[in-house]
Amino acid sequence: MGKIEWAMWANEQALASGLILLTGGIVGVAGQFRGWQFAAYGVAAGVFVCLLEYPRGKRSKGTSVARTGQYCFTVCVKAFGPLTRNYYVRAFLHAAICVPGGFMLATVLGCVCLGIASLIYLAAAIRGEHWEPILPRTETQRKPVPPSIKNPPSNPPPRPPPEMRRKRVDDLEGAAYDNPIPVTANEY
Amino acid sequence: MGNWIINHGLTSFILVVWMGINIFLFVWFYFFYDLGDQFFYTRHILGSALAWARAPAAVLNFNCLLILLPVCRNLLSLLRGSFVCCGRTMRKQLDKNLSFHKLVAYMIGLMTAVHMIAHLLNVEWYNNSRQGVYDKLSTALSNLEDSDNTTYLNPIRTTDIDPQQIPTYFVFTTIAGLTGVIITLCLILIITSSMEVIRRSYFEVFWYTHHLFVIFFAGLVFHGAGRIVRSQNMDTIPPHNFTFCKDRSDDWGRIPECPIPQFRGGFPQTWMWVIGPMVLYLCERLLRFIRYMQAVRYRKIVMRPSKVLELQLVKNGFTMEVGQYVFLNCPAISQLEWHPFTMTSAPEEDFFSVHIRSAGDWTNKLISIMEQLPEGAQGPKMGVDGPFGTASEDVFDYEVAMLVGAGIGVTPFASILKSIWYKFKESNPKLRTRKIYFYWLCRETHAFEWFADLLQVLEKEMDERGMGDFLTYNLYLTGWDQNLTNAVTVRFDEDTDVVTGLKQKTHYGRPIWDKEFEKVRKENPTSVVGTFLCGPEALAKVLEKKCAKYSDVDPRKTKFYFNKENF
């Protein structure tokens, strides 16, 4: 399993945990459960985790697939610099966030899932992975145009020898082809 | 519209039946628990959350039964073989087994969420009732104890710890609660590691995490053992009439009309649903293991250009059809990994071969082991499971076949072309094919020189028999650079192509499918044309649309059927 980037799986797990925490919190608040304050915390924590984990990071090897509409989230997350880049920070952050969820049944599952995501992030951090934003390629990043194209061609295009170019009147079907531009009849 | 029915009708029918059964189960069990008299007292505490928890449970039972079946590939191969009589549309459904597996998995995920939320409400309300927060009847019901002559209704018995923690304590000390949490956790881990991103790039994470399903099914079977869904025992003597007695909870046990109500738990039913598929799946894994233990001998090991390894293997009692694939396992590299490879040999040959391209950890290690072998030595122990069927088996049934292979997807067509040629030479009556259009698309010809060699051989043999137009092949090189164009324009007047050495010239860029389909339709005005693709999803969508577009519902005219192979 040499080429696994644990952060990719940790990201999926953390996003799922955020949603579960959020759902548990909504149920706790809407049902006015005992300890609904913890449920309200679950809602806030769930939203925060989802916002943090929604933008997928760039893979170090291979093509990265961005989630739909993640660009604005990428910009926000990128703005925090080393706090969001470093996976140790994320691992400890998720571990800390998940703890209050354990005090109420509705948020317990979200707490455990987030704890597991935190462990996977720790594994990713130990392997030296870090978060890179997926940014759209801008105009300036295109390779500079090589100078030879700027001048008009000095040689005619390569052509087959003349006996090939002669019209094949005996085989009109085979000689026919689609012309991209209109052609007038040969006057000669 | 007619074309859509031809191509998708049976799939849609199966999906409608499946959804119909799900809806029926949900509604039936919802009303069973919401209207049944024996649950009157239970509903008094829980309201309709009881029914909302039990209805998805029934749907979950059904779907957990279904989910194991599409992944029993040996069973599916058996079914496929026995459907030879029933037409190709039936057999095509079996190719979509993985899509069905995923659909059932989504339903399980959704129903688990509903089930869990309903039970969260149930536990909270049971707790409140036990704390005496609700009305008199509710408190009386909750106070019923679990002793010699009374049976309990409310499964929450504790009152002496912090009320906020009672639900959590209850969940972690009952069988249902504990198994529920564990299996939901397994399900979440399975789902997150099965996301497309993880599955396509880090297959091992997906594969190993998926085996948590063993814990899932074990927990599922025991989930109901605690029997905490309580219903009233209506057969007590004397009977307890709840309509009369519900307002007289103080008099229960003191007046003859109202003895203390007795309750009993629901009999656990999940095992009855899932035991069959679990046994089938166990047989499937056993069969894979038995096949793995069978001896496999190396007939020939060839290193092809561009790091492609050809293995010719012989196994006792092994028979194959065209375009099938096998799973290979090499314990010297990894004990637990099985990788699929399409076979490139024809069934008429007395061995089977695979061409393995360097594409990852496992394949690279295999190639390096083979490179270090001395001449003529046997390779490392190899386990072979299969063969497993794909849509390519149907190629011979069509009068006209359009075969499209993109990149590595050209591999099954090596087997098909070889087999067609053998059948043709033997004048095999099973071969209904009169004409084949073969399209080979690739970015570069590296790693496929072996296939070009095969085409050269076929080309020569066909010319010798004067069968030039039996097979029309079109090669499309979708990635090309300036050097290549220079070479081609200078040598364009030669008979053979500069890239492949074949008589048929290579095209550059992607094929214009409209033109190709038009050509095929024009040359075969009354035939049924089978289109077979092994390649990327995007191309599959394009071809499917073209097949639908150029098909005619009129049975006398050309009809295109689309078949896709996937792993």
UniProtKB/TrEMBL annotation, chain A:
Coiled-coil intervals: none
Alphabetized Pfam families for the sequence: Cytochrom_B558a (PF05038)
Main location: membrane
Region (Disordered): 137-188
Keyword Heme: yes
Record keywords, A-Z: Cell membrane, Electron transport, Heme, Iron, Membrane, Metal-binding, NADP, Oxidoreductase, Transmembrane, Transmembrane helix, Transport
Record field: transmembrane: 12-30, 36-54, 91-124
Residue stretches of biased makeup (Pro residues): 144-161
Biased composition (Basic and acidic residues): 162-171
Listed GO CC annotations: NADPH oxidase complex
Subcellular location: Cell membrane
GO molecular function, one term: oxidoreductase activity
Family of the protein in this entry: Belongs to the p22phox family.
Quaternary structure note: Component of the phagocyte NADPH oxidase core complex/cytochrome b558 complex, composed of CYBB (heavy chain (beta)) and CYBA (light chain (alpha)). Component of the phagocyte NADPH oxidase complex composed of an obligatory core heterodimer formed by the membrane proteins CYBA and CYBB and the cytosolic regulatory subunits NCF1/p47-phox, NCF2/p67-phox, NCF4/p40-phox and the small GTPase RAC1 or RAC2. Interacts with NCF1 (via SH3 domain). Interacts with SH3PXD2A. Interacts with DUOX1, DUOX2 and TPO. Interacts with NOX4; this interaction mediates superoxide generation.
Known function: Subunit of NADPH oxidase complexes that is required for the NADPH oxidase activity that generates, in various cell types, superoxide from molecular oxygen utilizing NADPH as an electron donor. Subunit of the phagocyte NADPH oxidase complex that mediates the transfer of electrons from cytosolic NADPH to O2 to produce the superoxide anion (O2(-)). In the activated complex, electrons are first transferred from NADPH to flavin adenine dinucleotide (FAD) and subsequently transferred via two heme molecules to molecular oxygen, producing superoxide through an outer-sphere reaction.
Protein name: Cytochrome b-245 light chain
Gene source species: Sphaeramia orbicularis
UniProtKB/TrEMBL annotation, chain B:
UniProt KW Transmembrane keyword: yes
Reactions this protein catalyses: NADPH + 2 O2 = 2 superoxide + NADP(+) + H(+)
Cross-referenced InterPro entries: Cyt_b245_heavy_chain (IPR000778), FAD-bd_8 (IPR013112), FAD-bd_FR_type (IPR017927), Fe3_Rdtase_TM_dom (IPR013130), Fe_red_NAD-bd_6 (IPR013121), FNR_nucleotide-bd (IPR039261), RBOH/FRE (IPR050369), Riboflavin_synthase-like_b-brl (IPR017938)
Subcellular location: Membrane
UniProtKB keywords: Heme, Iron, Membrane, Metal-binding, Oxidoreductase, Transmembrane, Transmembrane helix
SUPFAM superfamilies in the record: Ferredoxin reductase-like, C-terminal NADP-linked domain (SSF52343), Riboflavin synthase domain-like (SSF63380)
One CC-aspect GO term: NADPH oxidase complex
Any single biological process term in GO: defense response
Primary location group: membrane
Highest taxon, organism lineage: Eukaryota
Gene3D superfamilies: Nucleotide-binding domain of ferredoxin-NADP reductase (FNR) module (3.40.50.80), Translation factors (2.40.30.10)
PROSITE patterns: FAD_FR
UniProt protein name: FAD-binding FR-type domain-containing protein
Organism of origin: Sphaeramia orbicularis (orbiculate cardinalfish)
Gene: nox1
